[in-house]
Amino acid sequence: MTDENMGVSMNAKAFIKPLLHAAKYPHCSVNGVLLGWSTDTKDSSRGSPSHDSSSTDRIVDAIPLFHSSLTLAPMMEVALTQIDVYCKSNGLSICGYYQANENLDNNKPVGVAYRLADKIRETCGDAVLLMIDNRKMMTVGKDAYILHTCVDGKWKKNTVGVTTSTETLDIGSTLLKERTYRELVDFDNYLDDITADWLNTTIDEALE
Question: How far apart (Å, rounded) are the C-alpha atoms in residues 122 and 117?
């Protein structure tokens, strides 16, 4: 059970990449998964050269999934399998789900959001569900996300919300203004061209 009185901390990669994903496809619903350090990694000295396992942020990366359709099970299975392999190789685990709805004024979770968040929660008991606030995302404030946590088996809006650094907000604002989202790759792009980098290392380098 997750404490509804606790928010969630995100580093720059986790906070900014979902916003870039939504900005790249403003006419579509988009979704993705959130990654955090696995228990083994946080409790040991292991770590990947591309990640800082000493980070105190709970969510340290985001992987953009789809924009053409959020409900195609075979494509989702392919994506989650590859992400799971990546996570296991880097001491990470899938700890959350994000989504932006197509309708500008609709920021509420729909069926697919609940289903995927529940699936993630089967292996991560304190998983989170983030909805992007379509009207606030371009200002890159902490209220760009609406946090939902699972309490007593039900997903509820979390009043504490998301925390991140002021530097992250400044970087996110700059990248949106520079239209860096044009470089972002999601799994729809990858399935069209398997040479595309769904890890978005170019954007990671810009953030770091």
Answer: 9
